[in-house]
Write a structure and sequence with these properties.
disordered N terminus, 2 domains, Rossmann fold, about 325 residues
Length: about 325
């Protein structure tokens, strides 16, 4: 029987192919044989991207100028990926998952490349290596961060949570604008909502969050209770397209992370309720692909100023409603 492992999801793209599959640890499984074919395609595609570099250098050292995925797989640095190294590919690829989201994006596959012989590698991966784990200010924050850590490690599968740094970013935005009234479309298990509630406990604000799936809503309620933030959160079950029409302003910040084709409708209904100086935050501006109409709406409206963040990952659009 084939034993299923949980290595990163391989995501790579070139002009001619797109690969997304999971690796198995059993070399005799049909699934792994298929994955090895996919992996070969990835290596060929990435190798082509660096063909010019290889020809430009006269016999460079093994690994020099190569993308991170090739350096990770070539364990003995002899310039050849052996059968033994292929069998260890899953473990090798896990080490490239810099942001810990269980996937390998192109920027992680390419990684840092050396500027010259003996030079320190430049960080061209798009992954921020300067940030540290959040530090609790007091016992309350330590409690919330502990629950968030547990959710991140044990509840991420199937719940479509935002990446860890996106959660931290939401907390920063909410607290920075001293938000009192925050609306979230797409509660899931409460991961992003708990990050925002951490800030709202400081600002004296409240969160109204919408979830259409009963199972996720129940899990979110339990997580909010564990974190000690239930008293400032109203979770509404149902179709947010209908339920948001019952809201009243002014709203300080709206976070949209639900059905992607529904983003334009959410924006149309909620923008009039957002106060001048308030923010509309849209998630998944990079992957999965955002609704083009929503992107057009937030980038061509003269009443909004929009910037995009974390575009090496899921991607976030932050739109300021001008005063």
């Amino acid at each position: 029987m084939c034993a299923e492992a949980k290595p990163p999801c391989l995501v790579a793209a070139s002009a001619n192919f797109s690969v997304r599959d999971r690796l198995s640890t059993n070399p005799f499984c049909d699934k792994e044989r298929t994955t090895m074919r996919y992996l070969t395609a990835v290596l060929v595609g990435l190798g082509g991207m660096f063909l010019a570099v290889s020809h430009a250098a006269a016999q460079p050292p093994a690994g020099a100028g190569q993308p991170a995925v090739l350096r990770a797989l070539d364990l003995d640095r002899n310039g050849v990926i052996s059968a033994e190294e292929l069998n260890k590919a899953a473990d090798s690829l896990r080490k490239l998952d810099a942001n810990g989201d269980g996937e390998l994006a192109v920027v992680e596959l390419l990684g840092a490349r050396r500027r010259g012989p003996g030079a320190q590698p430049a960080n061209t991966s798009g992954v921020n290596t300067l940030e540290k784990a959040p530090l609790p200010k007091d016992d309350f924050e330590q409690r919330v961060l502990g629950v968030l850590k547990d959710m991140d490690e044990n509840q991420r599968a199937g719940n479509m949570n935002v990446p860890l740094n996106d959660g931290r970013f939401l907390r920063l935005l909410v607290e920075a604008i001293d938000a009192k009234n925050v609306v979230e479309i797409g509660t899931s298990n409460g991961f992003s909502g708990t990050w925002m509630a951490l800030a709202l406990k400081r600002t004296g604000g409240k969160l109204t969050t919408f979830e259409i799936d009963h199972g996720r809503a129940e899990l979110a309620r339990k997580n909010f209770a564990r974190a000690g933030v239930s008293d400032i959160i109203t979770l509404i079950e149902g179709d947010a397209h209908e339920e948001v029409t019952k809201l009243k302003g002014p709203i300080d910040l709206v976070f949209i992370d639900a059905d992607k084709p529904g983003y334009p409708d959410y924006l149309t209904k909620l923008l009039p309720l957002v106060r001048p100086g308030g923010l509309i935050v849209g998630h998944n501006m990079n992957r999965p692909s955002p609704d083009p109409k929503y992107v057009e709406m937030i980038t061509t409206n003269p009443d909004l100023e929009t910037l995009f963040f974390h575009m090496n990952d899921a991607g976030i659009a932050v739109s300021l409603k001008k005063r």
